[in-house]
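Q: Here's a chain of 525 amino acids. Please give me its 3D structure as tokens.
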Amino acid sequence: MDLKSFSKGGSKSARVSLARLAAALLFMVVVYLWIVVTKGNIENNTFLIIGAIFGAYMAMNIGANDVANNVGPAVGSGALTMFWAIVIAAIFEASGALIAGADVVGTIKKGIIDISAVKNPQVFIWAMTAALLSAALWLNFATSIGAPVSTTHSIVGGVMGSGIAIAGFGTVNWPTMGKIAASWVISPFFGGIIAALFLYFIKKKIIYQEDKKEAAKKYVPILISVMTWAFATYIVLKGLKHIVKLSFPVAAFIGLIVAVVAFFFIKKAIKNAASNLDNSRTSVNTLFTIPLIFSAALLSFAHGANDVANAVGPLAGINDVVVNGVVNQKAPIPLWVMAVGGLGISVGLALYGPKLIKTVGSEITELDQVRAFCIALAAALTVIIASQLGLPVSSTHIAVGAVFGVGFLREWLNVSDSNWVLTVESKLKTDKEKLLKLQEELELFLSKTNKEKEDYKKIVELYNEIDELEAQIKKEKKDFKKAKKEQFVKREAVKKIVAAWLITVPAAAIMSAAIYFMIKGIVLP
């Protein structure tokens, strides 16, 4: 594109892309200026500046990729518009990070490598820098191809790669890595099963009932109360764990009290709302709109409180080493570091989040409010169950797995667009009738043909027509079956996402090791 066409407005998308890039760079410049102004008197503050810039870049990529899991189903179902989803998620992500974010994090993420292998503070700083940059680059790439991946796995891969580059494969805690690998299967499986079970329950008890309004009055308050219990427990256990630590029984009891109190208000509200609705599936869907909005907000708050450490944990470690000059197992997170993480997530969400929100919300399977409700509920319940069983899980894999589960259940139940099915089946029926007529015509022709004056040309033409029509019908059947499946779950999206999950840790590790060796060759003695 030349400058003339660009100046005339030839490419709106190009201008939007440039504006987004400029805004992202502006945020990193602000972080840079903040460090220069406030930390200019610290020795070796260059290391801190570089770490802060990469931390900001990482936080923006978390916002662009990971937050989609919290609000994607609500947007895809129509419960929230894209604009309000971004506003709500940005506010609650930043609030979760700043209000309930960790005050102390492990400088080596999740004990992936042996910290005793990193004795040189300068080596540690560049190892964490390499981990941050590699994780951010991988997230950036995954976002560009529309694949929601685990940010925790990305940073784990980054730390593992730099650890191997420093001290070899023996420094890696392989049992821990085995648990993380297990989460690739456990997380989507549990999320998918729980979401499918709730959707099946709603279909059987409400959607397929003749009197949907009465069924909704009976079961919707119970379902929303279960969600209330799950989210209250989830927020106490995960969202507020850095403010007050409570055991699961205590958190579950608090959640139960909240759910019981909410039930009476919800029951009355649903009764009033249902009385003004008609007896249709669309009307039942509207009863789940408000719970979906609350779930998007609460999931975002808990995500900000927990996953901000993925962005600022290594940065906090770098800050601790620069300030104290030694490598510690734990590092405090200053408020400015938490602000970089929380605000960076919100900025990344606002600039680049819509792409992944659309992927999760509509490009895997079609969602309505009921299906999105099941996905949100499954996300909260799976985290609670897995944490009590000691199973490693990924919130990203859980949410996307729940979307898969909903789509595959729809496929199994074969609830498709009746008009589309009837149209295709009618065409197949017409083609089969045409085939039958051709076969009858051939048989009739053969019976009347004089063997001495047999019309071979006509016979060959009829045989060819029959063969072509049989091949066409066979192809139509195959395409029909495939298209029915594609209506429920887009196979290409599943393949792409699962492939991205499988290579996240090794891809981030390889990039991290390469970046570390590059830094070592340029800077380190």
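Q: Can you summarize the key feature?
A: The longest strand covers residues 104-106.
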